């Protein structure tokens, strides 16, 4: 009788029976001892037939080398930062019950671990340890690996494990998805010893599922903290404390992203109105019977800061609260929050040069008699800034006409700008043409690459600016125009003036105020720009299922010098999105040149990444009381990067010295 045997012999006997059961299932023979859960049965069959795992050859737990572990941790650095509080809370609840806690990445590698130090050795040999690999293809049926495969919470109790070395464990796991719904991590609680009954773990399943959802939502809130967010629940009492749905929206109510509950609402909507809704991100007003103004005024007008709206697809009433965006910090703490109009606020997060641009643009937005000259390297966003200036001012409803003076052949530029009457010249359109300057009447004329405007035309432009009227070619009467003029250049106009290629008087007229756009490599808010451009490109590609940007890719993007600035960044991200084969863009998806030509200088106040963290590091560390996570967050790099830099520079934290 196995029960009368010594423990090791008893285990060996149970293991033999276990192996026999696996073969029975593989051969299609039923037996009462075979697992009841269909997920476990399917996983056993996968292990036998797909992964070709041999149940007679139990494998000891595999722990990946330190360097590999660091790479895996780095790839989920942002999640780890958010998850840590949840991990500690959950472990606080289960430690006394003999459980260890594992958080793995989406490849099944344990990147965070909590366990009883007194059981260190047993936990390590059972694979309940940092770096342990719980991929089903290697470890066989197990809570983490099978949860990753099936994308649902699971208990894997004792003999439900495939590998005979794991059959004394009980493990329960739930997945954590990113805002697109792709699994990015798994939360697992496991114990070395536990009661035999499977039901003994039901409570673990509820607990681990709850915490996985909380971590998922905390990550979602962190990712979209700069957006307006609605929080919703069917219970009025719970919406503020634990509203289950989260939907990030634009000011016009357009849905940007949603957590699992929110995505289900969107999916519900798309199932009901499929033909057009699948192509467009819905508006909140399409999901709920609501006017966006009633949602945006919740905090100021609703008594208990929530309002009830009916979901159109299900007819269910949801209580909605509004989370204001955590605006990018543009002023030191203590000063009033930014009042920048949205088009200007979006231009930058926390870069001194951009802040100057934003503040000056705000002051000038309605001063249409002041001509604005925007300077900056190619691709720094001069046209975007011109448009933001237009959109935030009192001419926003008028036309915005952009003209690239370098792109129009010299022979055509005059007729394009001023227009012409019928028969003004041979080859012209029979009905004549309205010029771009008259087209801008009531709005803004944006002249890009003004340094490339031929001298003769500069004289005519000067006249337009002075007299506020244009004379189309062949016309006998001038036409009055009311335009705001914004110009841009990436060339040094001073040099052009000195060389006699640009009229000094025109320069002074155009340069009523100058906005200088810093190159991307010098911007302290590069991380913000990368995220914003990534979101833009994702949206332009129309992908709600788009891959996310991995931490290693972000590090590389932060470190690259970007000679082509934001335009080049946009192209690089479009390339990465087009070529990504998995749900994560890694450094390998970036165009090759992004991995070379790294920033070599350390700009003054900026927060550069990678190798450029250098000289400011000690100051930053001191400012943050040597809190590595806080420094990494501020610099927009991962913690391992900060550690690497500290090691390279020989910096030792005071308490470690
Ligand atoms: N703040 C920003 N957020 C998102 N995308 C931006 C931003 N600034 C610029 N871009 C994008 O970068 C690209 C280049 O921008 P833009 O044409 O405004 O640059 P530019 O300085 O006018 O370039 P050039 O000097 O070549 O005329 C565009 O695709 C634009 O959409």
TrEMBL record:
The keyword Transcription regulation applies. GO terms for biological process: regulation of DNA-templated transcription. Residues 347-578 form the Sigma-54 factor interaction domain. CDD domains: AAA (cd00009). This is Sigma-54-dependent Fis family transcriptional regulator. It comes from the Bacteria. It comes from Vreelandella nanhaiensis. PANTHER family: TRANSCRIPTIONAL REGULATORY PROTEIN. The lineage of its organism: Bacteria, Pseudomonadati, Pseudomonadota, Gammaproteobacteria, Oceanospirillales. GO terms for molecular function: ATP binding; sequence-specific DNA binding. Keywords: ATP-binding, DNA-binding, Nucleotide-binding, Transcription, Transcription regulation. It holds the Pfam family Sigma54_activat. SMART domains: AAA.
């Amino acid at each position: 009788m196995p029960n009368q045997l010594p423990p090791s012999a008893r285990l060996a006997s149970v293991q033999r029976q276990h192996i026999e059961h696996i073969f029975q299932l593989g051969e299609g023979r039923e037996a009462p001892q075979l697992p009841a859960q269909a997920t476990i049965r399917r996983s056993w069959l996968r292990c036998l037939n797909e992964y070709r795992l041999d149940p007679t050859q139990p494998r000891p737990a595999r722990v990946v080398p330190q360097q590999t572990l660091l790479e895996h941790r780095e790839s989920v650095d942002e999640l780890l930062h958010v998850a840590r509080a949840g991990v500690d809370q959950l472990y606080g609840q289960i430690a006394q019950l003999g459980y260890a806690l594992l958080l793995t990445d989406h490849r099944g590698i344990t990147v965070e671990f909590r366990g009883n130090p007194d059981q260190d050795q047993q936990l390590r040999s059972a694979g309940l340890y940092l770096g342990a690999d719980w991929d089903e293809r290697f470890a066989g049926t197990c809570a983490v690996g099978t949860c990753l495969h099936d994308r649902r919470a699971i208990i894997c109790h004792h003999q439900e494990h495939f590998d005979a070395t794991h059959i004394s464990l009980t493990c329960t796991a739930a997945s954590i998805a990113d805002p697109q719904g792709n699994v990015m991590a798994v939360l697992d609680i496991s114990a070395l010893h536990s009661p035999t009954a499977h039901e003994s773990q039901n409570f673990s399943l509820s607990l681990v599922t709850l915490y996985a959802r909380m971590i998922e939502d905390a990550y979602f809130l962190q990712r979209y903290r700069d957006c307006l967010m609605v929080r919703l629940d069917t219970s009025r009492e719970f919406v503020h404390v634990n509203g289950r749905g989260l939907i990030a929206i634009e000011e016009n109510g357009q849905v940007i992203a949603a957590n699992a509950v929110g995505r289900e609402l969107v999916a519900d909507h798309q199932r009901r109105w499929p033909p057009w809704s699948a192509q467009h991100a819905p508006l909140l007003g399409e999901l709920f019977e609501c006017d966006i103004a009633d949602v945006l005024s919740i905090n100021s007008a609703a008594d208990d800061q929530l309002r009830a709206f009916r979901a159109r697809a299900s007819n269910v009433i949801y209580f909605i609260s509004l989370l204001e965006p955590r605006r990018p910090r543009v002023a030191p703490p203590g000063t009033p929050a930014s009042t920048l109009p949205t088009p200007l606020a979006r231009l930058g997060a926390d870069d001194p040069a951009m802040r100057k641009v934003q503040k000056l643009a705000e002051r000038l937005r309605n001063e249409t008699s002041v001509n604005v000259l925007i300077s900056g390297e190619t691709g720094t966003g001069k046209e975007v800034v011109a448009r933001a200036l237009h959109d935030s001012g009192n001419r926003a409803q008028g036309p915005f006409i952009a003209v690239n003076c370098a792109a129009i052949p010299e022979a055509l530029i005059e007729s394009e700008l001023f227009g012409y009457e019928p028969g003004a010249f041979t080859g012209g359109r029979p009905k004549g043409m309205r010029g771009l300057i008259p087209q801008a009447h009531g709005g803004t004329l944006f002249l890009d690459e003004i340094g490339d405007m031929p001298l003769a035309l500069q004289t005519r432009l000067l006249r337009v600016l002075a007299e506020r009227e244009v004379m189309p070619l062949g016309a006998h009467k001038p036409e009055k125009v009311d335009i705001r003029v914004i110009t841009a250049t990436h060339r040094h106009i001073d040099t052009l003036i000195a060389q006699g290629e640009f009229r000094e008087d025109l320069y002074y007229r155009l340069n009523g105020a100058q906005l200088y756009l810093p190159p991307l490599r010098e911007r302290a808010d590069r991380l913000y720009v990368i995220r914003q451009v990534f979101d833009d490109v994702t949206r332009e590609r129309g992908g709600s299922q788009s891959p996310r940007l991995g931490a290693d890719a972000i590090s590389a993007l932060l470190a690259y010098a970007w000679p082509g600035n934001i335009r080049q960044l946009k192209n690089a991200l479009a390339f990465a999105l087009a070529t990504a084969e998995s749900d994560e863009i890694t450094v390998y998806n970036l165009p090759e040149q992004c991995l070379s030509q790294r920033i070599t200088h350390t700009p003054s106040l900026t927060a550069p990444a990678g190798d450029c963290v250098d000289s400011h590091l000690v100051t930053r560390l001191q400012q943050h009381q040597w809190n590595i996570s806080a420094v990494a967050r501020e610099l927009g790099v991962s913690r391992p990067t900060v550690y690497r830099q500290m090691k390279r520079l020989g910096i030792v934290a005071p308490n470690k010295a």
